[in-house]
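seq as requested:
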Amino acid sequence: MVAVMDSDTTGKLAFKEFNSELPGAFEAAGFPLNEHLYNMIIRCYLEEGGNMDFDNFISCLVRVDAMFRAFKSLDKDGTGQIQVNIQEWLQLTMYS
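struct tokens:
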């Protein structure tokens, strides 16, 4: 996926590429996210030079996938909402 999004063939995604292509890539992977979440991902996974390498991109996808799976396992009735206590929240956020 990085190679497809890497328009300048550097092997890394520059901020411009990352910012414009990320929503479609995550949507295609089955992770519909809002703009606020994309901005959080950008802040978390971009390197100082404004690039994201393949390893960081995969780490990002793995984390998003783990969080989606954790949420879906708690969303028993499929409403898109869950209620968790502090212990459950900490367990979710510490180990995903």
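The radius of gyration is 15 Å.
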